[in-house]
Amino acid sequence: MEVKKDILWRVYLCFIGIAVFGLVVVGKAVYIQMAEGSYWRGKSDSLHTKLLPMLAERGTIYSENGEMLSTSVPYWDVYIDFKADGLIEKKGMRFNKYVDSLSTALAVYFNDKNAATYKKELQKGYRLQNRYYQLRKGISFEEYKAMRSFPLVNQGANKSGFKFELQTKRINPFGLLANRTIGLSRQYINDEGRMVSQNVGLEKTYDELLKGEKGQRLVRFISGGAFIPVEGTEIEPENGRDIITTIDVNIQDIAENALLKTMLANDAEHGTCIVMEVATGKIKAMANLGKVADGKYWEDYNYALRTTEPGSTIKLATLLAVLSEGKMEADDLVQVGTAGSDYVGVRTVTDAERSPKAVMSIKECFAHSSNVGMSRIAYDAFKDAPDKYISYLKKFHLDKKTGIDLIGEEPPLLPRVKRNNEGLHAMVTASFGYAIEVSPLQTLMLYNAIANNGKMMKPYLVNRIQSNGLLAQQFEPEILEEQLAPEPVIKAAKESMRMVATEGTAKKIFIDAPYTVAGKTGTAHVAAKGVSYNDRVYQASFVGYFPYEKPMYTCVVVIKTKPFPVLHYGGDVAAPVFKEVADKLYGITAGGTAITAAGIKKDSVAFYYAGNTKEAKYVLSSLQLAYKDSAGASEWGSVYATQQQPVINKKTVLPNSMPNVKGMGLKDALFLLESMNIKVRVSGKGKVATQSVEAGVPLSKNMLVVLELS
Predict the structure, then answer these.
(1) Integer Cα distance of 425 and 417 in angstroms
(2) Among 106-120, 137-151, 503-517, 553-567, whose mean pLDDT is lowest?
(3) At residue 190, what are phi and psi to the nearest 5 degrees?
(4) Residue 224 to residues 133, 217, 362, 399, 405: CA-CA distances in angstroms?
C-alpha cells in the first residue's frame, strides 16, 4: 500500500511538472509572438540580403560649339535608420543627446518647419524604430554638403543612422530647342515595379553609351519590404560617355523661331526645318513643331524623318534622271500649252498654276514647276522602260533610309512600275511628286548633293564621343555617291534651281535678297489617315542652298497646312521660312566669312569668373598661380584680380533667395539653380552675363530665370 502511494505521488508530481512546463512554453510563445513579434520579424528580414544595381551618371549631350543640350543634375534623398547601432546603444543616449541640436540645425537651414516640429517627428520615428525614415527628398549638392556637417549627422552613418541616396534628374537647358532631335531621357516605375527609361532622339540612339555601366551594392531587407545599404559593398558604376553633336545652337534657334513664326501666322498643323552643311553633311539644325491639344506648338514628333508625298520638290530627281539618260538637254523645248492641263501619254496632268508660255525649255518647266512639262519629258524619256526611271531614283538613294544617327526614320516608298500602261501611269504620276513617299531629310540630302557639285554626303548628327574628357570615337563625313550624275547634268540642275529664285515660283520672295539662292518650291495635296484630297490640306515645301556661287548651307522647309488655308503654295508658306534662316545666317557669316571682333584686345589682367570654389582653387594651384583665399569653406565663390593677383571670394547662397550666378559657366549655374527648383532658360554661349531675376529676390513656386551668356 505504501509502495502504491509512493508511485502515485511521483506520477502526480511528474504530471504537475509537465503541466507547468507546458504552460511556461505556451506563455513564452505567446509573449514572443505578441510582445516581441515585430523585433524577431525584423531580425528575420535582416537575414535576407540582395545585390541591387547602382545606376551610372548619364553622359551629357553637347552642341558643336560646346553648349549643353541635355545633362544630368544630381540630388539626394535622405533617410534615417533609427535602429542603427549608434542610436540604440545605451538606451538611445546618443539620439537623446543630439536630437535638440539636430532639430535646430534642420529648422534654421531649411526654414520650412520650426525646431519643435522637427524634434517631434524625429522622436516619433525613433519611438517606432523606423528603419527607413524619409527625412528629406531631392536635396541639392550644397544642401547635402551642409547636412553632412549637422550635429549627429557628422558622426557617420553607423552612429547617426543617416543614409544619403544619390539620384539624378535629366534636364534640357535650352528647353524646346532641338528637343525632339536631342531627345528625352525619362525614368519611371512600370507596373512591375521596375525602373525603366523612355528615350527618343539621340538619347535613344546612343542610350548604351550615355547610360554607362551599372554598378551594384549589397542591401539588407528590413521589415515592411524596405531595405538599407550594407556599407562597404558597393561596386562603383562607370559613368556614361558624352556626345558632341553637329548641332549649332544659334542656327537651331534661328530655324525654330522662323518656323514657329510662319506656323503661327498660317495656323498650320505641323512643320520641319533642317539645315545641313553642304561640304560635310553635318546637320546644323533640325526643328520640328506640331500643334498640340491646347493649340500651342511643341516638338511632339520628328517630322524630318516622316515620309509623305513630296510634290514638286521631287522634280529635281526627274530632271536628273531625264538629262542623265542623254536623250534631251536642259534647253530643249517642251509643249505645255496654256490651258493648265494636258494629256500626257496615259493620263491627264494638271498644273497648279498656268504656265507663262505654251512652249518652255526644260529649265523653265522646272523653274515654273510645270507638272505637264516635267511629266512629259519623263514620259518621252522612259515610256519604253518606265522601270528605268525607278532605277534612277534608287541611284539617288530615294529607295532607302538616309542612315542618320536617329532611331525612327521611316523608309521611303517607291511605286512598283511594270512595262505596261499601269506602270507608265505610276511613273508619270511619280515624276511630279505623287505615288511616291520620301522624307524631308531625304529630299535635303538629294539637293545638298547638287550644291556639292554632285557629291552626295550622308547626313549625320554626332561629331564625336568622349569619355571623361578624352576622345573615344570620332565621326567623319561619309560620301554616299562620289558623282551623282554627269557634270553637265549637275550644272544644268544648278542653273534650273537658280531660275526658280530669279524668274520662277520663288521669284517674289527672293527678289531683294542680298545673296544668291538656288532651290525648288513644292505644293502637294495631302491624302493620309483621316484626310482626303477633297479636304484641301496641303504640304508646302521649299528646299535649296545659298549662296549660289559658293554654297555653305542647304535647307529644307516642309509645312502641313490646315484644311482650306488662305495660303498654301510652297513659295508663300515654306519659302519665307527658308529666307529668314538664310537672311540671318548670311548676316552672321557676312556672306561666307565668320564675323569676328577686330581691333579690340582684351585686358589679360582684368577677369571675373564664378563657380565652385574648390575647383577654382584646384585650377589656380595646378597653374602654380599664387592667390588670396577669401572664400574659406564656402561652396560657391568668384575669382577676380586685385593688384594683378587672383582673389577667391565667397558667394553667399541663401536657400530661399535668387542666387547671383553672373560669371559662372553654364553647368555650374544650371546645377545651382536647378537644385533650388528654379526653371532656367538660356541664350548665347560662354559665361553668364545677365540674369532676368536679380540676386536676392525671394523665390516663388515655378520661378523662371533667363540667363544670357556671352
Answers:
(1) 9
(2) 137-151
(3) -85, -175
(4) 12, 20, 80, 59, 46
